[in-house]
Amino acid sequence: MKKRVGALAAVIILLLCALVAYHRFPVQTKGTFFSVFPLLAWVSVDQPVLFNHIRHKETANLTCSFCHRYVERHRSAGIPNIDLCRACHSTDALSKKPEALKVVKYVQEGKEIPWKRMYELPKFVVFPHWVHIQSRVDCSVCHGLTGSKERPVKMVDRNYMAWCMDCHQKRRASIDCYACHSS
Asked: How wide is the angle at C-alpha 176 spanned by C-alphas 171 and 180, nearest 5°?
């Protein structure tokens, strides 16, 4: 009986400490959680085409800005349109792989690929991609494994204000409210 009470007390104390840590130190607590359980830091996103970032990055030597055309000049990075894909995927001569053939079909039918948006911040948050690119912040800082996995992945461990604030403080970037919360 004493062992059960002791174990229950230990669990309650542990949960209480975790609760206090989470609310007092959310960035560090989440960081610790995701370092202990790294597989929970990202989720695979089902897209109409399993876009292989590795193949496009390493084999075709494409940069993020090749497909995400607006990343260097605008707030939004932009989603690749079918005209970009057409340059390499107008026929099935390039690849016989099923996912590449899906792209060929979209190109031949002249239909846009209905990509699902992976990252979307609240409307009151302004994230100018171009500022981060000019400051030489690598895409992987925010997008993590996205460019290094065969499947499209969304990083869930870094899409919140405290994470951004922590990054800004480490890089000595502005932490003024209006830097990210202006129109």
From this structure: 85
Q: pTM for the full model?
A: 0.70
Give the tens place of pLDDT for each residue, 125-181: 888 888 898 899 988 888 887 777 777 788 888 878 888 998 999 999 999 998 888
H, E, C per residue of 97-142: CHHHHHHHHHHHHCCCCCCCCCCCCCCCCCCCHHHHHHCCCCHHHH
155, 140 in Cβ contact below 8 A? no
Task: Give the torsion through C-alpha atoms of 112, 117, 122, 123, to 10 deg.
Answer: -10
Tokens of 155: 């990083």
Domain range list for the chain:
1-36, 39-78+119-183, 81-114
* Whole-number Å distance between alpha carbons of 95 and 74: 33
pLDDT at 73 over 90: no
Closest CA to 129 of 118, 120, 121, 139: 139
**Taking residues 51-61, what's their average pLDDT?**
85
Angle at 58 between CA 55 and CA 60, to 5 degrees: 75
